Structures are given as structure tokens and as C-alpha cells.
């Protein structure tokens, strides 16, 4: 099913922005409702749509007299909304301004190694996970500079049809925010604290600069996404939170590599899980390794470089299904964990610089 990209819904907060609990099966069903294809890769199927990221769209809502519902409010929703599905008043969702092109994945989060951390970083924990793999800005094809990203929403259950809506824990990982050069998803290193090389964006440099300034206003650290929501998922209230400082996700070395010149990363992911021309499950998996550490240093201001040591492999994410769809691009939402000066202490949460009441 195709949708005109000019429809991006009401950009203010609506009632579905306030829903912090959801059901995995409902979210999954919503993602498959309006796939961009009937059978991926079948002859005659049109290519996946590509939505543009433009400076003009980002500037709206920042310059005096601009429309009030663009970037500042989109950023505020990302920080404040805990909803899984944000339909908007017209049921068309919201246009993503920085990561409009993505693909939704479904599978399990599995922790299988001892660590000092709590919640769903604890050994033996499993969770259902809804992920979205995307690229920042417009470029989706290999052979070009792009910043690949994987975000995820963990449900503290392995029952896909759980009756009660559940609170989730969200993570956000990405390559260098300025862009990187890996042709295969197999080679991309995705971190919750990536490097920042602004000039790699070329003409997109102003977009990176403006988005960084706005997210700094809203969430203190524009390039780091803390992990306390996962460390508190399923944890007793009486237990002290212990979250890792850094997390790295990388494709398992056993994963096959999908060839293809200027291949779209969405087609690359679908080829990992499906046969062309068929929507039937194949039993194949796309596996990401989960590594964590508390040891890392940063240097630089505008150009940021981070060095890490003593990475510890603690588990894996196994994706078994995927879909590229309108709802995956416009409706599915992942919360940006609000910054804490002490990641393990909720009392140190920093108040964002823009609240809903300031619309």
C-alpha cells in the first residue's frame, strides 16, 4: 500500500503520545498493516520509497514566525513520549525528520552471561524486541556515506500474545552521527555513544549542527543515549539500578553477506530473512551481538572521538521477521531516555528544556 509522503499528520502531542504501555502483538500487527510490497523482491514490485531530509524542513519551528509543530516539537516528543504507536489525530502518524527511511524487525533479546547490571541486562533474561533499522538523512544505498542506526523496544516477556499492556525499555544505537563508510550491515558498529564527524555530512552539515543544538537543549547530551530504561525493566523497585555506561551492537560473524551494487540497506536486511518473491518465513535469523563496558573516554567538542576498552559480550538479539512499511516509518515510536547526571539514580533526571506545556 502506498501513501503520499506529504501526509505527515498533526505534529503536536495527542492522546496516543501519553500511552506508556503497549502490547507486542498489536505493535507487530500495525507494522505489517501497510507494507510497501505484497511479496518483497517479486518482479514488478516498485522500489522502496525514500523520504528526503532537508534543511528547510528542519528549520521550520526554529526560526521566528515558523510553524510551531516542526523540529522542536518533534524532538520534544522523542524525549517525552513513551508511546509505541503514535497515530496522530488523522491516523497518518508523524513524519520523521532525521530518520525517515527504515525497516522494522521482530525477535528476541537474550542475555546469557554474568554481569553486574540489573533489569534486562541480567544473566538469563529474555525479552521480545521490536527494532527499527534506519539511516540518518536521505541516503539508503551502500557505496555512499550514511549513518546506520538500530533502535529497539524491549517487552519483558517471551509471550507474543500477552494480554496486559507492558512498560518497555528502549535503546538507541548508531554509527558516527556524521556518517560512515561501511557497505555491509555486517561491518557496522552501532553504539549508544557514537563518534561525531560533522563534515562527513557535506551539505548536510547544517542539519547535524541544528539537530545537535536542539537535542542538547532537550536532553543535555545530544550524542549519548543512556541505558537505564533497560537496566530498570523488570527490576524490583527496592533494587538499586546498575546500568552499563556503553553498549555496542554488531552483526554476528556467522551472518552471511548480501552482495549488490548500491544495495539499499532495507533490501539487504530483507534478503537476510526472506527469499525474493515470497513473504513466507524461512527460519533464518539476523543476529546482533550485545557488548557492554563502563570504560570509555571522549575527546573533542564539535568533532568527537570516543575510545573504549574491556568490551564484554553478554548476549545477542535474534531477529526472525522484518517489514518495510508506512507505519514503520510514520507511526512506530521509540523513546529517547531522559538524561540523568547519575544514570543509576532517577532523582538526578535532568528536566528537558522544552515541555509540552510550552508548545
**Strand order, largest beta sheet:** 6-4-3-2-12-9-8-7
* CA-CA gap between termini: 34 Å
- Helix-residue proportion: 10-25%
- Please indicate the percent range of residues in DSSP E strands (runs of 2 or more): 15-25%
Secondary-structure element order, as H and E? EHHHEEEEEEHHEHEEEEH
Shape: globular
Kindly report the average pLDDT value.
85
Total count of strands:
12
Provide the gyration radius in Å: 19 Å
Summarize the main sheet.
8 strands, antiparallel
Class computed from helices, strands and strand pairing? alpha+beta
* Number of helical regions: 7
Are there runs of 5+ residues with pLDDT below 50, and where?
1-14, 61-71, 354-359
Summary?
The protein has 359 residues and is of the alpha+beta class. The chain is built from seven helices and twelve strands.
List the helices and strands and how they pair.
Blueprint: E1 21-22, H1 24-32, H2 55-59, H3 71-80, E2 101-111, E3 126-136, E4 147-155, E5 166-167, E6 169-174, E7 190-191, H4 205-219, H5 228-231, E8 246-251, H6 265-273, E9 286-293, E10 295-299, E11 305-309, E12 312-323, H7 326-330
Antiparallel strand pairs: 1-5, 2-3, 2-12, 3-4, 4-6, 7-8, 8-9, 9-12, 10-11
Helix pairs in contact: 3-4
Would you mind describing this structure in some detail?
By secondary structure, the chain is α+β, with helices and mostly antiparallel strands. 16% of the residues lie in helices and 22% in strands. The chain is built from seven helices and twelve strands. An eight-stranded antiparallel sheet has the order 6-4-3-2-12-9-8-7. A two-stranded antiparallel ribbon has the order 1-5. A two-stranded antiparallel sheet has the order 10-11. Strand 10 (295-299) and strand 11 (305-309) form a beta hairpin. Helix 3 (71-80) packs across helix 4 (205-219). The longest helix is centred in the middle third of the chain and has 15 residues, at 205-219. The two termini are 34 Å apart.
